[in-house]
């Protein structure tokens, strides 16, 4: 019997060495891949192949992480931690990735896409302000500037998006007069990174509006809240088709000009979360509303009201939290909340709105940052190993 087993093993086809190395490399951290690309030209070629980078990203996406950006002085430090799905995990430890220059007064984060973070910063050249987008890869520590936004306007708002069909990164920027803080946007332009021509293109927008709060991408569309009309007397949702670069609008179910609502991905549909205290959620909050878009053409929404249980008050206590998003596509649907500023202890909260349960996970590793530092929290972070030495390397 033993001899037969040995015979079967010996008759099995050997695993090609290249395939074996390929599988081993897929299990390494992104920074290790960056170093191994310097070993030789054959290794650099293999690790730069599209099939390898896509498989690496797909495998990383199967184990999503939380990404944290902590602002300190003129730098932004990036950390990651497991996106906990186990109820028996009361704490996780941060992993520091990299730091990038970030002016808290003139820089603005405008998107987290496929492992990259984009922010804009303003600089003064010959007495004029210029807005420059910067792409950062926290996993590899690389960053690079893109061409400045072509506008004479001072106020610029940008969104970093990804065309899943065309597999292209894009930046949508809009600008308005410097005489009004929340004026109607007058110029709309797009920069597509993988084109061979890194220049801004003006596009048409027939909906006078001013963007407010952050946006979210769902099935090829960017959704963000905006004030419409010149007197800013109404509020709506702007939808930007990333591939066709066309604008549309969706009326909000309820209009509250001063309430901070958060757009989320609810099982592949556009959702909005609203707390009873505006954007802030505390242990004293009674609950929240969840609006889900049913029909965009008819502007039809469904509303679900959730009331926190007594457990919520005991777990959250004095924490001041904000909605981060939802863990869509996992075995459980949970709303994730996080503080915006550091304190002695830093927690992330997972609320299961169907069961009415709440989990508090302590994030360890931010003790080196003392003081009232701003923290940005991103869901579903995955590592990308496409390494770009400069802007021209982004061109495929």
TrEMBL record:
Residues 18-52 form the F-box domain. Residues 65-381 form the F-box associated beta-propeller type domain. This is F-box domain-containing protein. NCBIfam families: F_box_assoc_1.
């Amino acid at each position: 019997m033993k001899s037969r087993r040995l015979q079967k093993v010996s008759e099995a086809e050997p695993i090609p060495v290249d395939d074996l190395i390929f599988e081993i490399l897929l299990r390494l951290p992104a920074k290790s891949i960056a170093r191994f690309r310097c070993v030789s030209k054959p290794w650099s070629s293999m690790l730069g192949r599209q099939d390898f980078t896509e498989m690496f990203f797909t495998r990383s996406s199967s184990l999503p992480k939380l990404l944290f950006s902590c602002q300190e002085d003129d730098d932004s430090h990036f950390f990651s931690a497991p996106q906990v799905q186990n109820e028996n995990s009361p704490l996780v430890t941060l992993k520091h990735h990299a730091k990038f220059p970030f002016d808290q007064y003139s820089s603005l984060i405008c998107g987290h896409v496929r492992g990259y973070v984009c922010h804009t910063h303003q600089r003064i050249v010959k007495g004029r302000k210029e807005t420059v987008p910067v792409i950062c890869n926290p996993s590899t520590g690389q960053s690079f500037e893109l061409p400045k936004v072509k506008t004479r306007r001072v106020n610029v708002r940008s969104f970093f998006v990804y065309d899943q069909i065309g597999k292209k990164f894009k930046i949508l920027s809009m600008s308005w007069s410097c005489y009004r803080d929340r004026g109607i946007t007058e110029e709309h332009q797009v920069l597509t990174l993988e084109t061979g021509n890194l220049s801004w293109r003006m596009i048409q927008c027939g909906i006078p509006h001013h963007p407010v709060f952050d946006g979210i991408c769902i099935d090829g569309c960017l959704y963000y809240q905006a004030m419409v009309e010149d007197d800013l007397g109404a509020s709506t949702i702007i939808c930007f088709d990333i591939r066709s670069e066309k604008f549309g609008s969706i009326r909000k179910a309820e209009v509250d000009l001063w309430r901070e609502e958060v757009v989320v991905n609810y099982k592949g549909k556009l959702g909005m979360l609203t707390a009873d205290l505006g954007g802030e959620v505390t242990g004293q909050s009674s609950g929240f509303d969840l609006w889900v878009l049913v029909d965009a053409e008819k502007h039809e929404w469904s509303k679900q009201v959730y009331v926190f249980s007594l457990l919520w008050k005991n777990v959250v206590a004095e924490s001041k939290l904000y909605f981060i998003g939802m863990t869509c596509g996992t075995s459980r649907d949970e709303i994730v909340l996080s503080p915006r500023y550091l304190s002695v202890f830093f927690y992330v909260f997972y609320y299961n709105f169907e069961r009415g349960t709440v989990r508090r996970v302590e994030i360890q590793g931010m003790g080196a940052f003392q003081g009232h530092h701003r923290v940005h929290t991103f869901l579903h972070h995955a590592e990308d190993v496409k390494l770009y030495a400069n802007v021209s390397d982004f061109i495929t």
